[in-house]
Request: fold
Amino acid sequence: MKPVETTATPLVELRHVSKVYGAGESEVRALDGTELVIEHGEFVAIVGASGSGKSTCLNVLGCLDAPTSGNYLFQGVDVHSLTRDQRALLRRHYFGFVFQGFNLLARTSAIENVELPLVYRHVGLSERRLLALQALEEVGLGARAHHTPAELSGGQQQRVAIARAIVTNPLLLLADEPTGNLDSARKRDTMQLLIDLNRRRGITIVVVTHEADIADYARRIVRFHDGVIESDTLTGQGEQTGEGAA
Amino acid sequence: MIGATIILAFREIRRNPMRSILTTLGIMIGVASVIAMVTLGRSVTARITADIASMGTNLLIVAPGAERHGPVSSTASAFTMNDVVAIERESGAVDKVAPTASSSALVVCGNSNWNTTIQGSTNEFFEVRGYKFAQGEGFTETQLQAGLPVCVIGETVRRELFGQQDPVGSTVRIGTITFTVTGLTASKGKAAMGPDQDDLVVIPVVTFQRRIAGNTDINSILVSALTSAKTALAKGQVEALMRERRHIAAGQVDDFSVEDMKEMGTMLTNVTTVLTALLGAIAGVSLIVGGIGIMNIMLVSVTERTREIGIRLSIGAREREVLLQFLVEAVTLSVFGGMIGILLGIALSFGGAIAFGMPFGLKPDIVVIAILFSGAVGVGFGYVPARKASRLNPIDALRHE
Reply:
């Protein structure tokens, strides 16, 4: 199940993906025949009003949710053909997640939260500590490694969550409203951090947001409306490495 | 994978001290109460069985007056020594026969006095009732035939009248008569029920009839069967003989009763078995209450735990890794609580046995049952919600409210 990384295969490809909640009269099509290609190294913002399907799209990309129909190819491999455990391994080895609600383990120190993905990767204790501390230092929280989430501010918790997402050096970082709970200064810091990760480490980043100024940090903006991609545009931000898809 | 998962489980236990303590407490109390209750119930049964055995084996008590017809009928005449001789001679399944005539009287020795039961009987009395001699011996043939003023005293009487002194050879006074003590019976120990068996003075039956009662009545006859298996046969023989001797026509109700101590023992054992079952049921209820406590704690934390499972799944944990962690957590708490519960239960039942003067006998079966049940409750309520959560789509687990 190790897909070979080639330049010819896009990192992520959604082929006519639909996600339907409910049935009959109350049927809601959160995604309706979505086609999306994301290449290695891109920084994509997915925007749209609430209920437009942008978060659903991100959850499908992260294998957190299964599409009702259509195909999701990750590095050319159809995720639908994988078992539940294989999808878990996909998340373990290739994905990093940042959630709006942080989703850190309560009563657990920052460093232990950051270590968690490494525990599942069977990294030894001393190496784990070192990598976790490095990741925390990268997000500027090296001094707070032993604080629990309750002892940290919202911005700091979000940075712990980012450290947890990047500690495994993922191929794809998926962020759902990463700045939703932050003030404007913290928003800027967080977005700058993501841009640095994208540029320096080449991590492909997909950010879901409903805020236009946040989307402006991205090089490519995909706009959803009622489960359909309304527009897919490149911005003037940085060097262009991505290609838009219809 | 297993090592890392176990570390995660222990970390969770340490991180949620309140939840861990309450879960452990529920199991602990459940296990302890079941063990204590059932062990105490069994101790009571053992004690009662021992008491009945100590009253004499294969014992039949023949008493005047009809059985199961209210108080002893005043018209039923007492037995005589002739009845005793007849039973001895004619009932084949009978081993020893002891007449008893008794009354309560004040026994005086120097400055001490003690109110006790005076039993007029023969040496067979000691054999039938299972008394052994601690000092001295029973009566000689001459003493029995001539009705001499001699007596054998029980341990309680010795303690009350003689204190540290050696009683054998000393004299005591009953009424106006001075008796010489020829023997002291060995203590039968404190009975859980019934009269104190060490609180008695035995004198020759002839002495009793002539010098204390002033008649030739025998109040009851104690009969021992040859073997335990022949008790029923002996009972039948004695009943038939007494009906004949007392001229009771066919169809008429007996004016005497033959009580089988073995039957009484069986009855009492049945009672205590029911008692043990009842205590066990009460303990079972506390086990269930403990289980519900555990269930509540687990269910209250299920929202938090479901989110936690969502987090773990989203960062790449496999279902079985999540489940193993929760299983280790539940098993650890259950085993820990169970261990403390066993120790506490044993301590309680041991203390209870000491306090009530009962034998302490711990049976392993109840320990196993208590452990299995509490373990099942702990694991069931800790593991099942976790299994449900780990099968959700990660996003549904994360969004669980």
